[in-house]
Amino acid sequence: MERSEHIYVRSNRLILRQFSQQDVDSFYLYRSSPEVATFQSWENYQYHDAELFVRKQSKCVPDQPGTWFQFAIALVETNQLIGDCALHTLLGEPRIVEIGFTLAEEHQGNGYASEAVRALLSYVFTGLRKHKVIAFADVRNEKSIRLLERVGMRREGQLLENYMSKGQWVDEYQYSLLQSEWEHSVKRGL
Ligand SMILES: CC(C)(COP(=O)(O)OP(=O)(O)OC[C@H]1O[C@@H](n2cnc3c(N)ncnc32)[C@H](O)[C@@H]1OP(=O)(O)O)[C@@H](O)C(=O)NCCC(=O)NCCS
Question: Which keywords annotate this record (predicted)?
């Protein structure tokens, strides 16, 4: 596959790059999967939604206060889209960012999501010089919780009935990582 999109970060097996028009089909396939959507805000995701999403994200730039930027996660070897990770720069305090992530079901269980999130943390702390990264996980989302703890994020608290998920209020854990903690863990080789 041709690679002309802007690449933000590279890791051993992955690149985090700008979304492009050629991603629409792969993106739609995993976004519309009920398994992938279990703990996410969307349901009944349509092809038209995917086209709009990709069109918008292909023109966005990261780190604009009050907005979400989605990085396409692609395999280095083929440039194939396998998932996405998100960066939300808070409007009131842009030195703090929230992250999120999604991986196509057939690519889960290979360590790709952890590798992508570690690459994103490196970009956020080294490139953007952010102070703190936060993430929220539905308390039932075991894979997400395992990933957040694997990359060194620390559970800061449980937020009761913090999120309306498919007609039901659910609890979320908030996870965090300070730049000082990240630097410490990088120096220790974690
Ligand atoms: C959350 C999500 C991204 C996690 O994906 P994942 O593939 O399980 O996460 P990782 O990349 O950390 O992979 C870890 C697994 O790969 C295995 N693995 C295999 N090869 C590996 C390798 N080379 N390196 C590291 N881990 C490897 C690990 O043993 C681990 O398995 P385990 O969880 O059974 O112990 C994925 O489940 C998902 O997209 N869910 C739907 C969307 C969602 O809910 N997002 C979260 C919103 S907050």
Answer: Transferase
Instruction: State the distance from the centre of ligand 1 to the C-alpha of 92, rounded, in angstroms.
Output: 32
Pocket of ligand 1, beta carbon within 6 A:
36, 39-40, 100-103, 108-114, 137, 141, 143-144, 146-147, 150
Task: Give the CATH number for residue 149.
Answer: 3.40.630.30
Within a domain: 161: yes
Q: Is the pLDDT of residue 190 over 80?
A: no
How many angstroms separate the CA atoms of 65 and 134, rounded? 15
Alpha carbon of 105 to ligand 1 centroid (Å):
10
Residue range of the domain that includes 147 = 7-187
CA 78 vs CA 10, 75, 114: distances in Å: 14, 6, 19
- Residue nearest ligand 1's atom 10 by CA: 111
Domain assignment present for residue 2? The answer is no
Q: Report d(CA 116, CA 123) in Å as an integer.
A: 11
pLDDT per residue as tens digits for the range 18-29? 999 999 999 999
Indicate whether 2 pLDDT > 60. no
Q: How many domains does the chain have?
A: 1
